[in-house]
TrEMBL record:
Binding-site list for ATP: 268-275
Name of the featured protein: DNA helicase
Superkingdom, natural source: Bacteria
Keyword NADP carried by entry: no
Protein's organism: Azospirillum thiophilum
């Protein structure tokens, strides 16, 4: 029986087709599932295409579906649906081939690639020594293994410098571009393949020739999906389904299915699909649970993100979702404490200030001898050392490693302990716990066996977890027992905006040595915005969440857009006016919905300026998901609040010279933008 695989663009654009055409396309898919040889399908061979496998099917008076017929096997590919002329133009010069070693489908335009090579040819041959380019190290066979279709090898051979490589990369199949990027960066072919595709091996799924598509369904494909049965087809076509739910990059799929003993760490800059992999992996693991009592835990730092993840996992697989508990760290800790009988509550800022005032009234630091401590210093020491590290006793404090804090003698620590002890007593008396205190108590409860562990634990936003948070997730997972897939943590040191201390996983007993991977393909942000955002952090030491440095070699975005725009203004009023004009331009020219635009941080001046142009705005709320399309209005939010969200366009107002924390916040805000970024420097 013939099968038909669908290209992601067909699914993506399906909703935009006229209803009649949608119906015909659905019928076509159904007919294929019944029998591809049915006379009613009418696969017309096109004469003027460079690839003789291209066929066209009538799906309306002026509408055609482009189908690629196999030369071997009976898997057909539905690649494109368009008006007659556009559809023919789309396929005329393209070739469609299954790659011999990677097993993936590649689509490329030989003529355009050759023209690109021609355009970037050097006007005059350079001296012999400068003619060397890193790609020259690869033989033709190695270029092919790197993913370059044989027909494109001469065009790749013509690359002599980085500019020509950048020019060519847009014409190469994406996996070839990704692998070659690493070779150009100085890596061996094996390393490049490992880093980009995860030592991808199509194994038994290798096609018997470029026209054999029968194995495509067995390899991880970022572009094709085999729809099994009409029900699934209806489900996929009925919803405006997001691409990530169906299509994973081969490397993402590898990480989703990575079966390994011991904890693992997956890092990646903003927008590289960490949360997507986390959700797929959680579902994958939940689907394989054998014991009815077992559960999967997904936890994040911010409450908003956990709400979003819970919702998306339910959409991804409603059955598996029942076995997955999604919560944020704070909520998780509270639940554990409450179930263990705790009846107090978490102290808010007001409580904390009142208690400290009481402690300082009792024992005024200003009267505490010559080297009096500052009140702010005492509070900070408590927050960043005692509370953050879960220190319960003076002995522990005297020997604690206070990373990043100024030196204190043993004697000084003894004196400080008096205030800390008094503060802890007051907290206890009032039945209060600090946020970190809840996490600490929860950890102790789990370690004492007072709360059951989870078969699999997955953690997002790991960079924001403190030592006690890390210890809690370690205690909740089976990392000691040599279990399979006990703990998988995801994070990004570039986005550490909630705490400054960089705490290596190893300090909480989580050993990920040899089990760390990094995602590099950015799906959210254009290459221009990605680069601009990274330039904000230049010179800063960004960690890899386990005591090393984050390495961003090979990071790339899957698409390009316009450069970010920077403007300087003298006041907030002017900033508001500039932003309102920009928003109006985007809505008028690019038909953006106002909910697709975000401005950070929140300024009354921006709101008024938008208002005066008749544009509504909506302030984003903590612990509440963005309502999306149903509630129009330009989103307004603090830079830290928009973490975890994404918009087509973002405007940022920057005022003062930033410290390191501001720079990280700005990085987070800028990387929420997909296509348009406006930076308004004010003052
Ligand atoms: N395979 C894929 N195909 C299409 N889109 C994808 C794919 N993987 C991820 N994306 C999209 O890329 C964007 C970023 O993904 P995600 O939020 O998972 O990244 P992240 O690394 O967790 O980002 P951040 O750390 O900035 O929050 C999302 O819009 C997601 O839908």
């Amino acid at each position: 029986m013939a099968t038909l695989m669908l290209h992601r663009d067909v699914l993506k654009d399906f909703g935009r087709l006229p209803a009649k055409v949608q119906k015909k396309v659905s019928e076509l898919i159904r007919k294929f599932q019944e029998d591809s040889t049915q006379a009613s399908i009418h696969l017309e061979k096109l004469e003027q295409t460079v690839d003789e496998k291209v066929r066209s099917v009538r799906v309306g008076d002026d509408w055609r579906a482009i189908v690629i017929a196999p030369q071997k096997g009976d898997t057909f590919l539905l690649m494109h649906v368009d008006h007659h002329d556009e559809a023919y133009r789309w396929c005329r010069n393209k070739r469609f081939e299954a790659h011999g070693t990677l097993g993936v489908l590649q689509v490329f335009d030989l003529q355009m690639a050759e023209e690109a090579a021609e355009r970037s040819r050097l006007p005059e041959p350079a001296p012999e020594e400068t003619l060397q380019y890193p790609l020259d190290r690869l033989s033709d066979d190695e270029l092919f293994q790197a993913g370059v279709p044989r027909a494109l090898i001469p065009a790749v051979r013509a690359i002599r410098n980085d500019a020509a490589f950048e020019e060519m990369i847009g014409y190469l199949p994406p996996e070839a571009g990704q692998v070659l990027f690493w070779v150009v960066a100085g890596r061996s072919l094996e390393e490049a393949l490992e880093e980009t595709l995860g030592a991808f091996d199509a194994g038994a799924a290798r096609p018997e020739g470029p026209g054999d598509f029968s194995k495509l369904a067995q390899v991880a494909s970022a572009d094709l999906v085999l729809v099994e049965g009409e029900e699934e087809l209806r489900r996929i076509l009925a919803e405006d389904i997001e691409a990530w739910r169906v299509f994973l990059h081969p490397y993402q799929r590898k990480l989703k299915e990575w079966d390994i003993k011991g904890p693992v760490k997956i890092s990646g800059s903003a927008g590289t699909g960490k949360t997507v992999v986390l959700m797929h992996r959680a579902v994958h693991l939940a689907e394989r649970l054998t014991d009815d009592k077992d559960k999967v835990l997904v936890t994040t730092f911010s409450a908003n993100l956990s709400v979003t993840i819970e919702d998306l996992i339910r959409k991804l697989n409603p059955v598996a979702a029942k076995r997955i508990e999604v919560t944020n760290l704070h909520q998780l800790a509270r639940t554990i404490c409450l179930r263990a009988g705790w009846q107090g509550r978490v102290a808010d800022e007001q409580d904390l200030s009142t208690l400290w005032d009481a402690v300082f009234t009792e024992h005024d630091p200003a009267t505490d001898g010559e080297a009096a401590f500052d009140r702010d210093f005492i509070r900070q020491e408590y927050d960043e050392v005692i509370d953050a590290m879960g220190i319960d006793s003076e002995e522990e404090y005297l020997t604690a490693a206070r990373t990043g804090r100024s030196r204190l003698s043993r004697q000084q620590r003894r004196r400080l302990w008096i205030w800390f002890q008094a503060f802890n007593r007051l907290l206890q008396k009032r039945g209060l716990l600090t946020f970190e205190g809840t996490v600490h108590q929860a950890r102790l409860i789990v370690e004492r066996g007072g709360f059951p562990r989870y078969r699999h634990v997955l953690v997002d936003e790991l960079q924001d977890f403190g030592l006690e948070g890390l210890r809690l997730i370690a205690a909740l997972s089976w990392i000691e027992e040599d279990a399979s897939n006990p703990l998988c943590v995801f994070g990004d040191g570039h986005q550490r905006i909630n705490r400054q201390a960089k705490i290596p996983l190893s300090r909480a007993g989580i050993n990920v040595v040899g089990r760390s991977r990094r995602l590099k393909i950015n799906y959210r942000t254009s290459e221009q915005i990605r680069r601009w955002a990274h330039s904000l952090l230049s010179g800063m030491e960004i960690d890899d969440l386990d005591g090393g440095h984050a390495d961003t070699t090979g990071d790339r975005s899957v698409f390009r857009a316009s450069e970010p725009v920077a403007v300087k203004v003298a006041s907030r009023e002017e900033a508001g006016a500039a932003i309102a004009d920009w928003v109006k331009g985007l809505c008028d020219t690019h038909q953006l919905g106002t909910h697709e635009i975000c401005v950070a941080p929140v300024f009354g001046e921006v709101r008024s300026a938008l208002n005066s142009l008749g544009i509504s705005s909506l302030e984003l709320q903590a612990n509440k998901a963005d309502p999306g399309q149903v509630e129009p209005g330009v989103r307004l939010g603090a830079m830290r609040r928009i973490k975890g969200l994404e918009f087509k366009a973002v405007a940022m107002v920057v005022e003062d010279k930033p410290d390191d924390r501001n720079r990280l916040e700005r990085y987070v805000a800028a990387t929420r933008a997909r296509q348009w970024l406006l930076v308004v420097e004010c003052g």
